[in-house]
Predict the structure.
Amino acid sequence: MNISGSGHIAAGEYNEKISVSGSGKIDGNIRCNALVCSGAVKAQGSVTCIEGLTVSGSGHFEKNIKARNITVSGSCSCAEDMAADNNIKASGALKCGGNIKCAVLKSSGKIYAEKDIEADEIYISGRIECGGALNGDKVDISLYCDSPARAGSVVGSNIVIHNEKNGKHNMILRLPLFKSLSGGIGSCLVVDELIEGDSVAVEFVKAPKVVGRNVAIGANCEIDLVQYSEQIEIHPDAKVGKYEKV
């Protein structure tokens, strides 16, 4: 099914790929093989794609999205939950009014979730706003100088949060976790509750609490309390109210 001008798609099941290069409106819940949007699409119901959902134009979804893979290089908004069996890749703007869940999340644009973001691996190299928990076995966040970032909490096994100006190649230390360049101007990640993981290495972060087995607090951090069980390292330029071994 192809829409290259303006058209409607009725609710139902479609054993085929749906392509929208013009303006398309989905009137209810649909299940299809794949949905590709290079124009503008508005879906009033839930969308389930057996294979993939690709948005390189503009997509507005008023219910849940579920697909094997989701790729966004344009603008995509989902009022409820978004889930992918495998990967979610976003290089444009992705906004979700519910939870985002997948195996691997890679975002190099702007990503917003009103609730939780959960994945086995999370790679962020742009702007992020997460109203709930940012939860992943591996969490790697690269902060951009002109992009504010926020999360309710960050939880994972291996957590690295750094400023892109410094680069990850400067992050080798004796723990080994990272080495931060002192000084510099950049964006910071504001965390409302806590950062908790097995191995935690952060810079340009403001948080009330950081908990981990091995913890490295880098430059331009403001942390009220740091709790660690094995090793800790605090950069001279970091502001830490209290740290304790537990």
Notes: The two ends are 60 Å apart (CA to CA). The longest strand covers residues 127-143. The chain has a mean pLDDT of 89.
